[in-house]
Amino acid sequence: MPYMLISTQTRLENGPTNVGDEYSDPVVMGYLGARKTTMLGNNFSEYHVDDPPRLVLDKLEKIGFRIVTMTGVGQTLVWCLHKEAE
After folding, report:
1. Which GO terms describe its biological process (predicted)?
2. HEC readout, 29-68
């Protein structure tokens, strides 16, 4: 899993943070302490943590992820990260 997206709502900069989808690496999700949830009406699952994005980004940097880009989409902040293949 060389690429990863994390996001949060602008009014929730202090968390929770969306850190993955149902296909995300379970080892990375465990490292982040993420919980897998399915919102009512959705046919897919997402991983969330209570930490703010800054702490999530710090944790991901420690295991080799680097920010590629960041953007705002409506009321959502999104970061794209990449990890070099080992």
Report:
1. negative regulation of biosynthetic process
2. HHHHCCEEECCCCCCCCEEEECCCHHHHHHHHHHCCEEEE
Backbone φ and ψ for 28, nearest 5 degrees, come out as -65, -40
- Indicate the pLDDT class of residue 13, thresholds 50, 70 and 90: low
Domain ranges of the chain: 3-82
Q: pLDDT of 20-79, one tens digit each?
A: 999 999 999 999 999 999 888 888 899 999 999 999 999 999 999 999 999 998 999 999
Strand order in the sheet with 17-21: 35-37, 46-49, 17-21, 3-9, 76-83, 65-73
CATH fit for domain 3-82, picks 3.90.1210.10, 3.40.190.10, 3.30.1410.10, 3.10.20.30: 3.30.1410.10
